[in-house]
Design a protein that fits this description.
The modification N6-(pyridoxal phosphate)lysine is found at residue 367. Keywords: Decarboxylase, Lyase, Pyridoxal phosphate, Transferase. The structure is a single chain. The chain is α/β, with parallel strands linked by helices. The chain has helices at residues 23-48, 75-81, 92-105, 125-137, 148-164, 203-218, 221-225, 254-261, 282-294, 317-327, 345-351, 383-390, 414-417, 444-479, 509-529, 555-578, and strands at residues 196-200, 243-248, 269-272, 298-305, 330-335, 360-363, 376-380, 483-485, 495-500, 535-537, 544-548. Strands 1-7-6-5-4-2-3 form a 7-stranded mixed sheet, sandwiched between helices. Strands 8-9-11-10 form a 4-stranded antiparallel sheet. Helix 8 links the parallel strand 2 and strand 3 (269-272). It contains 16 helices and 11 strands. Among the domains are: 27-110, no CATH class; 166-183 and 190-230 and 237-394 and 428-440, Aspartate Aminotransferase, domain 2, CATH 3.40.640.10.
Length: 579
């Protein structure tokens, strides 16, 4: 027996010399104070909805022109108005609340009916609660041990989303290439238990992860040896071939950025021409793939878009899937914008036919569904492919299956872990192994609680209502003598695109194009003063107006918007075109 003495415990704890913790009281105090600012901010937007049908938002008294929607200043002016100095000595609650007032005053109130500028809109009550809950937990959803509940919620949410898109259905033999399959599919032709996904910080990140996973799946050596290995000896007689990517000419720019970030180069993205409705078709893709092969290039990835950024077009996914199956190409569907239609059986059948044959799908609930920003997912038919393409050895974080929660056996050699994929039924619980991210906020909770609150049918009703309002706005524009609709009627998604032109006559020629662009941009600028924010985009005849409807947009609001455009447009047209 050892003769060493066990040190005695101190008679008193060191905590007795410190004040008691009162964090809960501090939280309660600050929450009450911020609530007194936030609730009136939302109430103001609710009240302003009653004024929108008139074509003018409620004017707020103060030192600058302001509506409930926004008090807009250029950056230099705003810097002088806001107290942005960071002090040596803290200003406490009073300083924080004073700054919170300034932030609310000088920010766009996206709860306002007049905000129809971007592909998202104001938050909702369940969104605020979700963000508060996440901030309270303040944890990282990278390993199961520190975020058990949020890990289960993310896996459950992504699995159910994948099922809505039909990714749990394994493709039939007719949809899988026998010459160059992208990855092994489950044997069961009707059920796939591995469909799921991972949350990402936005649609661009989801598209990047899709391309990364496809690259590492098609070219496994690129994961460890770099993209240079793809170019070495892949052609006949040792000739090299450049890997290329295909996307619609109207696809989001994130595909090109992803190709650049992954070492393929943005020049590897082949822009496939679109039809009159702004859609990439299977026939156009087949022609582009054939041309690339004839040029000695190596096609491997196709990005179809479900809801393009400007016109809202849905590519012909079913025909594109046929080409991908025949050619052995990874099919990714960027449904960041239009994916919300999956909750509506009617719209899903109309807009997303063939999406169940995709290898991956990006969807952003923070757009059409109004979930709190940011909330985005990459969904796949087999999460094991994500694991194989992204998992690396990090023993300081990923500790094997000592909790029974990790998929990689403890005794596997470190070198094997970096490249080994999961081919059995075990699941991934340490979710950072599925993505390049290590720091991961539990964004899936926001979708989960929203789904719990509204239900699938509630989301379906929201989306269908937004589509109905969009069609109504397009009808108003189409019937107006001074507006020229360029969207399809009804529009394919929630954008309505059109020109303002007196008597529907656009100014022609290069000089006319400049004038039309100025008319459009000036109208947008003047609308902001009256409580409406809309956007514009480039077109053949110059910049055109683009309005984005959402599930909260009322018919009276779009009626008021048309009135406001009519009023401001007449003034601008006179100043720009007629003088």
């Amino acid at each position: 027996m050892s003769n060493s003495k066990i040190p005695s415990r101190p008679a008193t704890s060191s905590n007795e010399d410190e004040p008691p913790l009162a964090r809960a009281d501090e939280v309660a105090d600050l929450l009450r104070s911020i609530q007194d600012l936030i609730v009136p901010f939302v109430k103001a937007a609710d009240a302003d909805a009653n004024s929108k049908p008139s074509g003018h938002g409620t004017v707020v008294s103060g030192g600058a022109p302001r509506t409930t929607l926004v008090e807009h200043h250029p950056p230099q002016k705003l810097q002088s108005l806001m107290d942005l100095e960071l002090p040596d000595e803290g200003k406490g609650k009073e300083g924080v609340m004073a700054m919170a007032k300034q932030i609310l005053q000088y920010s766009v109130n996206t709860w306002d009916q007049g905000f129809m500028d971007k592909l998202y809109h104001g938050n909702n009550a369940i969104g605020l609660i979700s963000e508060l809950l996440l901030a309270t937990l303040n944890t990282n959803v990278h390993v199961y041990s520190v975020s058990p509940a949020l890990t289960l919620i993310e896996k459950h949410t992504t699995r159910h989303l994948a099922q809505l898109f039909g990714l749990h259905r394994a493709p039939s033999a007719s949809t899988t290439s026998t010459t160059n399959p992208p990855h092994p599919h489950p044997a069961n032709p009707t059920s796939n238990p591995h469909a799921g996904g991972i949350s990402q910080p936005g649609g661009s990140a989801s598209n990047l992860l899709a391309l990364l996973t496809a690259r590492n799946t098609h070219f496994p050596s690129s994961k460890s040896s770099g993209v240079g290995t793809i170019m070495q000896g892949t052609g006949e007689g040792g000739a090299t071939k450049r890997p290329v990517v295909f996307a619609s000419a109207h696809a989001h720019y994130s595909t090109s950025k992803a190709a650049s970030l992954l070492g393929l180069g943005d020049g590897a993205v082949r822009a496939v021409p679109v039809d009159a409705g702004g859609r990439m078709t299977g026939a156009a893709l087949a022609k582009a793939v054939q041309a690339a092969r004839e040029e000695g290039e190596l096609p491997f990835f196709v990005c179809a878009t479900a809801g393009t950024t400007v016109m809202g077009s849905f590519d012909e996914v079913e025909g594109i899937a046929e080409v991908c199956a025949r050619e052995g190409l990874w099919l990714h569907v960027d449904a960041s914008w239009g994916g919300g239609v999956v909750f509506s059986e009617r719209l899903k059948e109309e807009k997303l036919k063939g999406v169940e044959r995709a290898d991956s799908v990006a969807v952003n609930p923070h757009k059409m569904l109004g979930v709190s920003l940011t909330c985005s997912f990459l969904l796949v038919r087999d999460v094991r492919v994500l694991h194989k393409a992204n998992q690396v050895s990090a023993g300081y974080l990923f500790h094997g299956d000592e909790d029974g929660g990790n998929v990689v056996e403890q005794e596997e050699a470190e070198g094997e872990k970096a490249g080994k994929g999961l081919q059995d039924g075990r699941e991934v619980w340490d979710l950072a192994e599925l993505t390049p991210q290590c720091g991961r906020k539990g964004e899936a909770l926001k979708m989960f609680l929203g789904w719990l609150y509204y239900g699938r049918t509630g989301y379906a009703a929201m989306v269908e209502r937004a589509y109905d309002t969009t069609a109504y706005l397009a009808k108003l524009v189409q019937e107006h003598s001074d507006m020229t609709l360029i969207s399809e009627q009804p529009p394919p998604c929630l954008q309505v695109c059109f020109y303002y032109a007196k008597k529907g006559t656009l100014v022609e020629g290069n000089e006319g194009k400049k004038k039309m662009s100025k008319v459009t941009s000036d109208i947008c600028r003047r609308l902001m003063r009256g409580g409406f924010m809309i956007d514009y985009a480039p077109g053949e005849k110059g910049l055109f107006l683009r309005v984005v409807v959402n599930s909260e947009t009322r018919r009276g609001t779009v009626e008021g918007l048309v009135k406001a455009i009519e009023e401001e447009g007449e003034k601008v047209w006179r100043d720009v075109v007629e003088t």
